[in-house]
Amino acid sequence: ARxxxxxxSGGFGLGASGEAVLRDRPGADLAVLxxxxxxxxxxxxxxxxxxxxxxxxxxxxSSELCGPRQPEPAVHDWLDGFLDALEARGAxxxxxxxxxxxxxxxxxxxxxxxxxxxxxxxxxxxxxxxFDLDRGGITCPACARRGTLxxxxxxxxxxxxxxxxxxxxxx
Length: 171
Known about the structure:
The protein contains 5 helices and 5 strands. It is 39% helix and 15% strand. The protein is of the alpha+beta class and 171 residues long. Helix 2 (49-65) runs antiparallel to helix 3, helix 2 (49-65) runs parallel beside helix 4 and helix 3 (73-89) packs antiparallel against helix 4.
């Protein structure tokens, strides 16, 4: 720890991104950070509690959902894009939901929101459906056995956000 303090004396701000050089240590879970070149420091997060809270949340969520020592370039790019948008335009509930759904999609865990996971029916425009967590998505009235009721407008909004870019989520 003392050696790291000398090499990275200024520390890194919340959400800083850049290029790192890591060295594996035999038998250790964590790699040694040899160098880190900051490309975006995002220091504004430290001056805005809402931005800092959102940044901390998405960083922790991404860390928890990604496996250790498993590169996830699509997740990194999605996270970096969210942090850029957060820094430039501040916090937005719709952008945060789009980030969460997009993160699940990039990890192969996206919920099925446009068609029934039981029968594949996709003409659900006006139907109240159920979200079945165990089955990974919505179920039409005929297939629903359990789950949380989802109104048509909510399902459409979620499906739209799941397919949205971070810029689209602003509207």
